[in-house]
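Hi,

Apologies if this is the wrong queue. I'm a grad student, and the batch job for Trigger factor from Sulfurifustis variabilis produced an output file that my downstream script rejects. I'm not sure whether the problem is my script or the file. Here is the sequence I used:
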Amino acid sequence: MQVSVESIGTLGRRLTVAVPAEQFEQAFAERLNRLSRQVKLPGFRPGKVPTKVVEARYGGKLLEEVAGDLIETTLREAIGTQGLKLAGGTRIRHKPLARGQSFEYTAEFEVFPEVRKLDLAGVEIERPSVGIADEDVERTIETLRQQRVTWNPTDRAAQRGDRLMIDFVGRLDGAEVEGAKGQNATVVLGSGTFVSGLEDGLIGAKTGESREVPVAFPSDYRHAPLAGKTVQFEVKVNEVAEPVPPAVDEEFAKALGVQDGGVEKLRAEVKANLEREAAGRVRAVLRRNVMQALLRANPMETPASLVAAEIDRMKRIAEAMRGAGTPPVAEGADDELYRKRATVRVALGLILAEIVRARGIKPDPARVRARVQEMAQDYDAPEKFVEWYYADPERLGEIESTVMEERVVEELLATAQVRDAPAGFQELLKMDVSID
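Support response: The file is valid. Your script probably expects a header line. Output copied below for reference.
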C-alpha cells in the first residue's frame, strides 16, 4: 500500500492511497467465491452457481463492496502511519474499478490545529477583589421591601412609582388598534410595563380623570403597522395608589424565612448570600479573563466541520429555548453571529481539551459534591436537590465538566501573573463575563 499526503490550506489534507492490484484481486476473488456458494439462481443447484455467472450478474456490486471494505481498513491504517488527527468526516473518491488493476482512492478531511501555548506564563490576568459593604446589604434589603409593597389608594396626583388602574383604548387615524385596549389594567408608572410614552403621559393624573395621550412609536418598532406612527390613547384613571413598603422589623424578617434572630440575623443572611453571589461572579469574570488570554495566546484556524456542527447545535438549542420563551441568542440573529460564537467555542474547546489531556486533569468527586451542595443552598430542601442531581449521570456530568474547567483555570492562574483589582459589588455585577 502506497500513501501520500497533500496539504489543502492550513487544516485540509488530501490523503491518496494506492492498493496493489494483487491485494484488490485477492479480496474480489474471495468475495466472489463466497457469494457463489450462497447465491440461488434458477437452473443451478444451491452452492453450485459458476463464478463467471455470478460475476456477470453481480460483478459491479462486488467491486464496490470490495472497494468499501478496503477503504475502511486501509484508511485507518494510513491515517495512523501518517500521524494525522482527524477533526471531522472524510470525503472519499476512488478511481474506476476493474479486476486486475490497482485500487486508488483519495480522502479529504480536516485535521485538528496545533495548540502551542498550554500555560499563561508571562501573561497578566486581572482578578476582581470584592468585599460586601453595609450599603450592599441595605440596598438588597430595600429591594426586598419594594418587592413586598402594599398599595394605598390616594387622591393626590399620580407620580412615578404609583400604581394606576386604567381603562384605555388606542386609535390610529380614528380606527382602534388591535390589541391596544384594556379595562382595569394595572400599570406602575416608570416600570416600563406599557409602551414608552404612555406611562409618562399619566404622571400627574388623578383618580377619575380621563386623558388623551399621544404615543409615538419608533421607526424600528417590532410591530410593523405601528412603526413610525403616532397612536392616540384614550385613558381613564380608575384608581391611583401609592406604594407602602413594609418596615424592616422582626415580622419582615420572618416573612423572608428568618424565624429567629430578627433583623440582625436577616442582615447576616443577606450578607452571606451576597458573598456567595460575589464569589460566583468573581469566578465567572476570572474565567472570562483566562479564556480570552488563552485565545490570544493560541490564534488558530478552526476546523470548518466542527464550526458547522457547533452552529447547528446552537441553532437547535436556540429553537428549543425560543419555544420556551427564553431564546439564548438575540431574535433575528444572523448566521455571522452564530459563526462568530461557534468559532470561539470550538477554539476554546480544542485548547481546553489539549490542556486537560496534557495535564491529566480529571473531575475531583469531592469538589463536584461541594459545588452541588453550594448550588443547593438556594433551595428550601438542599438535601433533596443534591439527591436529584446525583440521580442523573448526564446532569452530574455538567457539574463535573464545570469543576474540571475550574481546575484548568486554577492551574493556568498558577502560571500567570495575577493582579488583584479592588472593585465594589455593584461594579462587579456590571462586569462582562461573556467570552464569545
